[in-house]
Design a protein that fits this description.
Number of strands of chain A: 11
Distance between the termini of chain A: 55 Å
Structural class of chain A: alpha/beta
Shape of chain A: globular
Radius of gyration of chain A: 16 Å
Oligomer: homodimer
Number of domains of chain A: 1
Strand content of chain A: 15-25%
CATH superfamily of chain A: Class I glutamine amidotransferase (GATase) domain
C-alpha cells in the first residue's frame, strides 16, 4: 500500500502487582500489527514496576511526561486493591480516557475505571471470581455478569486475565479489519474466542475458593 | 498443609526481541502457583531487555550471577535469529539444562535448544510458520510437525507463541498435579487445550505469508 497509514499509540498502564497476562496477552496481539501501532508503557513514575507474579517490567513514561495516547490498556491484578485509593491514577485515567479512541481494561482493571467514575451509565464486565470488587465500586454501572468482554462506546472491558487477549483481537478487528485479527491469531497460534457474549467462566461468579485451589493453600 | 514444601526456582531467559507472550503466558500460569515457585529473570547481562513488540522487561540476573534453576523457560521471537550465533547463550543453556528438572522452550526457542545441541536424539516441536528455522538447526532431532507441545525427558518444547501457555499448564500438572493446573486455568479464565498432540495450526506449516497478512504489509 502506498497510502499514508495512521500510526496509533497504545499506552499500557503499569502499577505494582499488576497481572502479567492481563497486560502481555493484549500487547502480544497489538504488537503483531507492526509499524501501524506503537506501544508505550506508562506508570505513575517511569522505571521498573513489579508484577503480581514477580518479574519486573519497565515503564518508559511517568504520568507527567506521557505522550498522547490513542488507545489505553489497563490491566488488573491483586495490585488493583491499592490503586483503588490512588487519586493520581484515577485522574490520569479520566484525563486520558477523554481523548482516547478506545480505553480497554482487563480483569479487575474495570474496578479502577469504575472507581474513577468512567463507567457510570455504561455496560461493563470484570473477572468472574472477584466480580463483587468491580460491582462495589459503582452502582451506576450496568455490570454484565456473563460476557467474555463488553464494548460500550470507547470503553471495552474484558473478563478475567485470558479474556483480555480475546478482547484485544476484537478491538483489532474493529480498528484494522477482521482479516488482520485472524491473521494475527494464526501467526500466534491462538484460538481466538470471537464471541464477546460467550462466557465459559460465568458459572464461577464470586467463587473465590478457586484462588486457594490454585495456590495450594 | 504442615509438611515442608519444596520451593522450585524457574529461570525465565530474556534476550533482545523475545516474543512477549512466549514468555508471559507461561509465567502467568507458573506465577499462580504461589510461594511454591519463585520466578527469576535472567539475560546475558542483568538489566532492561527489549521485546519484539517494544516493551522492555527487566532481567534480574546476568548469566554469570544467576542462581540455581530448577526450571528453565526459553521464549522464541524474531530475536532468535541473532541468538543462533551467540555462543555465550548456548553455553548457558547447556550448563543449566544439565541440572534442570524441566527445560522448556516456546516457539522458535526450540531452534536455540537445537543449535546448542541439546535436542539431538530427542523429539521436539517448534512454531508452525517458521518450522524450517528449527529443523535446519539439527538433523539429529526428531522434529514433530503436528503437536501443541512435545515432552521428551527433561525437555518440553511448545509450538508457536500461545502454545506455550498450554505447555506450561501441562508441566504444572506433571509437577503439582492435574487439579492445580485446572484451578489455575479457572482462576485465569483460560480454556486450557489439554491435549499435547492436538495441533489446530499444523496446516500452516511454513506458511510464512501469514506474517505479512498480520502486519498488513
Amino acid at each position: 500500500m502506498t497510502s499514508p497509514t495512521r500510526v496509533r499509540t497504545l499506552g499500557a498502564i503499569l502499577y505494582p502487582e499488576f497481572e502479567l497476562l492481563d497486560l502481555y496477552g493484549p500487547l502480544e496481539m497489538f504488537g503483531c500489527l507492526g509499524p501501524e501501532l506503537r506501544i508505550e508503557t506508562v506508570a505513575q513514575e517511569a522505571g521498573p514496576v513489579r508484577s503480581a507474579q514477580g518479574p519486573e517490567s519497565l515503564a518508559r513514561y511517568g504520568f507527567a511526561d506521557c505522550p498522547a495516547l490513542d488507545l489505553l490498556l489497563l490491566p488488573g491484578g491483586i495490585g488493583t486493591l491499592a490503586q483503588l485509593g490512588n487519586d493520581a491514577l484515577h485522574e490520569f485515567l479520566r484525563t486520558r480516557a477523554r481523548s482516547a479512541e478506545v480505553a480497554m481494561s482487563v480483569c479487575s482493571g474495570s474496578a479502577l475505571f469504575a472507581r474513577a467514575g468512567l463507567l457510570d451509565g455504561r455496560r461493563a464486565t470484570s473477572n468472574k471470581i472477584f466480580f463483587e470488587l468491580a460491582r462495589s465500586q459503582s452502582e451506576k454501572v450496568d455490570w454484565v455478569e456473563q460476557a467474555r468482554w463488553v464494548e460500550d462506546g470507547p470503553f471495552v472491558t474484558a473478563s478475567g486475565v485470558s479474556a483480555g487477549t480475546d478482547m484485544a483481537l476484537g478491538v483489532i478487528a474493529r480498528l484494522y479489519g477482521r482479516s488482520r485479527a485472524e491473521a494475527i491469531a494464526t501467526v500466534t497460534e491462538y484460538q481466538w474466542h470471537t464471541d464477546a457474549a460467550r462466557d465459559p467462566f460465568a458459572a464461577q461468579l464470586n467463587q473465590t475458593h478457586w484462588l486457594a485451589a490454585a495456590t495450594g493453600r
